[in-house]
Amino acid sequence: MTSAHPGLPEFDYVKPASLKEASQFLAQHVSEARPFSGGTDTFVRMRDGFFNPKYLVDVKGLEGTRVLKFDEKEGLTIGAAIPMNRVVAFADSARYPLLVEAAKSVASYQLRSRATIVGNVCNASPAGDTIGACLAYQGVLNIHGVDGPKTLPLNGFFTGPGKNLLKPGDIVLSITLPVPSKGHAGRYIKLGRNRLSDLSIVGVSAMGVKDSGTKSGYKFHLAIASVAPVPFVPAKAEEILASSPLTPETIAQAAQAAMDAVTPIDDVRGSAQYRKFMVRNLVSRAVTEIMQKLSA
Amino acid sequence: MGFHQISVKVNGNDEVVTVSSNMTLLRMLRESLALTGTKNGCAAGECGACTVMLNGEPVNSCMVLAVEVDGQEITTIEGLAKDGQLDVVQKTIIEKGGVQCGFCTPGMLISARALLNRNPHPTEEQVVEALVGNLCRCTGYSRIIESVQAAAEHS
To answer: Which of A42, A83, B66, B82 could form a disulfide linkage to B19, CB 3.0–4.6 angstroms apart?
Structure first.
């Protein structure tokens, strides 16, 4: 990061003609090749010297990466080449309001012309804005590997900052979000250093739905960005919200449980202690707003 | 490092350019095609000075590889005026005084034109949202926002 305008380091651009070729190339050049789609994170990290691949493999032309469709049985499938702006503009995305809200919070309009949901997921950044929504909607990744197609649930996919369960040669072609529960409500509250466009200091994704199978009558999915090595699901908080009548005290108790469970770090965007307090406040706010939406 | 010959339509003109793998669209426009209206600011997709239209959608040209735009259409600030007539948003930004040093202006105008193309009558909030990725360190934004709103009224 010595130059104010660093160019991209040297690499070879590779555009494979088939999925088989792509997976084989990536598997044969494990430490030298990286797949990319929008490049909005890849190029920044290369300029910063964070990684320096010999080959960049463009997945945008590959079969199955350009799909964007909704199916009443399978749900919403978003290809790896589909930029976030197209997801936001797609009519059936309105069935997934939490995803739309989260996608619209990413950087700027022109960045979202390139940035993709699948790229956001594969990057496995703890700050990834759309990951919480994909977790809440119980997303499943459709992958092509050296042994052919396979699927992986997003739950459990993240293993560390920038780390995930993908194997050499694996290419995520798309993500499928199953048909969500009818009448659910979502809220993504992103705390940045400015109101729009920043990375999150803390990001709270929350989804709630009426559920006669729980003691509280509601079921909540929560995921919190930028507070742990991976996108964090506060299981205890979700449990509290399912097991007691949802009074302000219960919500406060759940928010406290989320605050106690997160393990943020100090960084340029905020201190660990500040992040913990913000987790408590924003979980409480998100759940309260969802309750208002559900009872409206 | 590999080189690639690409065909691209820039401001309505067909161009054939030889580009290296690591050449960005921004560098190709400025250095291969001498279209220096598009500016190099942060080189990280944050400031928007390099914004151009790729198939009608605004993108940060520092975040797109030249080789990726093979067969695509690009519009830069040089292509905004038509038949010697400034685009309406170029006119209103002059009238309203939305330009000081001018470095952000090309990217700002591309984002504004793209907004008006997809939403001819944006609210003030929609203008702000569309211009979030274009940083200006001179004007304080008010006059830029007014310029876009005035352009919407004119069209």
So the answer is: B66
CA atoms of B131 and B127, how far apart (whole Å): 6
- Residue B2 contacts A, CB cutoff 8 Å: yes
Fold held by B88-154 = DNA polymerase; domain 1 (1.10.150)
Please check the confidence at residue A6 and state whether its pLDDT lies above 80. Answer: no
The per-residue pLDDT for A3 is: 46
Do residues A99 and A177 touch, judged by C-beta distance below 8 A? yes
Name chain B contacts of A4, Cβ cutoff 8 Å.
43
Q: Which two tokens stand for residue B134?
A: 């274009």
pLDDT, block means (10 residues), chain B with 155 residues: 95 98 97 97 95 98 98 98 96 97 98 98 97 94 97 88
Q: Report in angstroms the alpha-carbon separations of A198 from A15, A39, A100, A268.
A: 32, 18, 17, 12
Least CA distance to B52: which residue of chain A?
A: A110
3-state secondary structure of A76: strand
In a domain, A2, yes or no: no
Flag whether A61 is in a domain: no
Pairwise CB contact (< 8 Å): A8 & B24:
yes
Which helix or strand (DSSP H or E) is residue B91 part of? Answer: helix B88-95
Q: Which residues of chain A make contact with B111, given a CB cutoff of 8 A?
A: 109-110
pLDDT > 70 in chain A, percent: 98
